[in-house]
Design a protein that fits this description.
Layout lengths: L2 H4 L6 H22 L8 H20 L7 H25 L1
């Protein structure tokens, strides 16, 4: 295989700035969730979900896993899913 066949197109600057903006908005929502008393019963699962979305965006775009082989996505996302399930089960047990 030549170098041209093994390389893939990287996102342009506009895409990186858009992802950075989305990450900023999600972070602001996370901080906002902590100050809304009505969200207290669901704050932990909500923050966990928002963090998972941020993790997927960072891994997918900034670590360039989006254009890579699906195996690499599974290597990152499978442990994240397992950790989220375990954390939610622990939260359910401790309530």
């Amino acid at each position: 295989m030549s170098d041209d066949e093994t390389q893939h197109a990287h996102p342009d600057t506009k895409t990186y700035l858009l992802i950075a903006g989305v990450l900023t908005v999600i972070t602001a929502i996370e901080f906002g969730c902590l100050y809304v008393p009505a969200l207290k019963p669901i704050v932990a699962p909500l923050l966990l979900s928002l963090s998972a979305v941020k993790f997927a965006l960072v891994v997918g775009f900034y670590m360039h896993l989006k254009p890579d082989a699906p195996l690499f996505r599974w290597i990152f996302l499978a442990p994240l899913t397992l950790a989220a399930v375990v954390m939610l089960m622990l939260l359910a047990l401790l309530r």
